[in-house]
Amino acid sequence: MRGRSAFLVNDTSVSGHPGCVTVMSVIKDSLEARGIAVSGRWPMGAEPQFGLELSPALRQAHVVVVNGEGTLHNTAARPGARRLLHAIKRIRGATSAPIFLINATIENLRSRDFSVLQHCERLFLRDTRSCRYAEANGLSAVIASDLCFSARLGPAMKGEGKVVTDSTLPEVSRLLRRQAIVYEATFLPMQRSRFKSMMRWTVTPGAHERSAIRYFSSIAAAQSVVTGRFHAAVFSLMSETPFLAVRSNTAKIESLLLEALGTPERLIQTGDLQRQTLLVPPLSNDEINRIRRYRRDAIARANKMFDHIAQSAAMMSRQVAS
User: Which intervals hold domain Polysaccharide pyruvyl transferase (predicted)?
Assistant: First the structure.
């Protein structure tokens, strides 16, 4: 098992986003547990034409792991999505190592984007909707739920405090902030200044991990949560905290609720935030049982995914040695 390495692309931990930081920690720990060292990283937002394929760590890696996160959607309008696809093309030109797209939601791609994704040995997507979309466009995909579910974080004693988070959508964030005042809740933005977060990561990389744990703990200890963030909904499920979620910039929250709870009943519309008060119902016994089954399945799928990546790294290592 010695000497095998992975190169990580789209390292979102630099953003300071608690969900992204948690995901990247799970990826690193899961690879290292299988004897694969993370030899290099390409951070989110970095333009791939500025040296990605020249990286010695990339050229020497036995596998390349691309963290999809919520990046790959609406590529016609989103430079970040196109940047990640461009990175995959450049990686394939620089190395013959297998490329794995993991932890991804895909939606509303351009037709030519699917040919880029064919460079990946396998796609591990976060939800059934994304897998069906991939398969309808000629790609094979496997479900592996958001990797936060594999983190060693769980339920805590609930307090009396209420939490409201922000959204990826500015107008929804404004409504949520106002709702926090009406609701007498703590407003807890998931993403603060990205630039400041990246500068903080440069000086004290470990600070983001500690902040992510504190953020999760705030949700885990809350009486209830109202959120417009996918990962705040994930954290609410992981901690078995009652919550309501507003639709985000893709269907990822709806998909999460359908797969974890079997129903989108905890999804609310933007107009619901105009109400004077929002009632967050407690989790039923059926919901709690569904959440626990979903999380066990998510962990099993993640382990199977990382086992497959480790097997590919071993095969590549043998080919290089021969």
Answer: 57-247
Amino acid in the structure at residue 315: M
Which residues lie closer than 8 Å to 112 by C-beta, 6 or more apart?
none
List domains and CATH numbers for the chain.
4-150+297-321 (3.40.50.2300), 162-283 (3.40.50)
What is the DSSP annotation of 47-67?
-TTTTGGG-HHHHH-SEEEEE
Closest CA to 189 of 229, 156, 217: 229
**pLDDT at residue 275 greater than cutoff 90:** no
The single residue listed with the structure tokens 């902030």 is 177
- State how far the alpha carbon of 83 is from the alpha carbons of 46, 145, 193, 277, in Å: 8, 24, 21, 41
Please indicate, yes or no, whether the overall pTM of this predicted structure exceeds 0.90. yes
Question: Residue by residue, what is the 3-state secondary structure of 250-282?
Answer: CCHHHHHHHHHHCCCCCEECHHHHHCCCCCCCC
